[in-house]
């Protein structure tokens, strides 16, 4: 007998959902029956707004009224709180929160500006804290939180002191929050992807990519769907006794 993941009737908020991994997570949760709430950071009507609205249109063509777009810069606590209140007022509570929004500002420590350090910490770490803090106010008991960590948290990759520090913090925050949320039967986990083929990773030079492939046992980079499938599993009843865990999705790469 086959086992299917059916999340019909559930609502999931995905931050940074306009493109890349976030968009694929939204598509995958939607395919499992979820209503999806697509967050993007662009309040000025730029590319992320257009991409998020295009994705919502794509999903609503499959199931009318099944996708919604809510802009907010996750680095701004007031914007995150306002977004959560709007979602609650418009749609009711949510059943899953996927904190996916992130940025890169790679530099060696000697060359990294204070602004580059702070921007990555603000989005990749503080943004997760804000989304979890205010998201818990609208997340139903028995729900699920999935935070996006990274291989970089443990691998010490060159030029990623800001990114590695932020993702290490996310993974530690996840373990703490899993204990604090247990009384509400809310599971809190993280995913630590390796190198995934996205527009962000496309900025890595071919020379560096070739060297990276040499240390990945599977000899290939991951795809956004690999991460999305892991998110789907962690949001499903199949992961009902898993919490406080960091799931590596990296083809065996240990850095």
From TrEMBL:
Enzyme Commission number, as recorded: 1.1.1.100
Which protein is depicted?
A: 3-oxoacyl-ACP reductase FabG
Name the gene that codes for it.
Answer: fabG
Gene3D superfamilies xrefs: NAD(P)-binding Rossmann-like Domain
Q: What is the lineage of its organism?
A: Bacteria, Pseudomonadati, Planctomycetota, Planctomycetia, Isosphaerales
Q: Which GO terms describe its biological process?
A: fatty acid elongation
Q: Where is the Ketoreductase domain?
A: 10-194
Name the enzyme group at the top EC level. Answer: oxidoreductase
Among the GO molecular function terms of this UniProt record, one is: 3-oxoacyl-[acyl-carrier-protein] reductase (NADPH) activity
Among PANTHER family, the record links this protein to: 3-OXOACYL-[ACYL-CARRIER-PROTEIN] REDUCTASE, CHLOROPLASTIC, SHORT-CHAIN DEHYDROGENASES/REDUCTASES FAMILY MEMBER
One Pfam family name is adh_short_C2
Could you list this entry's UniProt keywords, alphabetically sorted. Answer: Oxidoreductase
Transmembrane parts of this sequence: none
SUPFAM superfamilies tied to this protein? NAD(P)-binding Rossmann-fold domains (SSF51735)
User: What protein family is recorded?
Assistant: Belongs to the short-chain dehydrogenases/reductases (SDR) family.
């Amino acid at each position: 007998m086959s086992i299917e993941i059916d999340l019909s009737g559930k609502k999931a908020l995905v931050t940074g959902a306009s493109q890349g991994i976030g968009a694929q997570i939204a598509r995958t949760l939607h395919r499992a029956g979820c209503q999806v709430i697509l967050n993007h950071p662009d309040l000025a009507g730029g590319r992320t707004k257009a991409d998020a609205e295009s994705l919502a249109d794509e999903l609503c063509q499959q199931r009318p009224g099944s996708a919604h777009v809510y802009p907010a810069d996750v680095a701004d606590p007031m914007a995150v709180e306002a977004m959560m209140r709007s979602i609650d007022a418009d749609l009711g509570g949510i059943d899953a929160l996927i904190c996916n929004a992130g940025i890169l500002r790679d530099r060696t420590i000697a060359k990294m500006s204070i602004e580059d350090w702070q921007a990555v910490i603000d989005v990749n770490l503080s943004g997760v804290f804000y989304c979890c803090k205010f998201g818990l106010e609208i997340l139903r008991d028995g729900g699920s939180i999935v935070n996006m960590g990274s291989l970089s948290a443990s691998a010490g990759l060159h030029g990623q002191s800001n990114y590695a520090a932020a993702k290490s913090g996310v993974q530690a925050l996840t373990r703490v929050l899993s204990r604090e949320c247990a009384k509400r039967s809310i599971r809190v986990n993280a995913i630590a992807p390796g190198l995934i083929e996205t527009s962000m990773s496309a900025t890595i030079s071919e020379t560096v990519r070739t060297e990276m492939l040499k240390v990945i046992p599977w000899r290939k980079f991951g795809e956004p769907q690999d991460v999305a499938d892991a998110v789907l599993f962690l949001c499903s009843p199949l992961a009902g006794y898993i919490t406080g865990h960091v799931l590596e999705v990296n083809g065996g790469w240990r850095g």
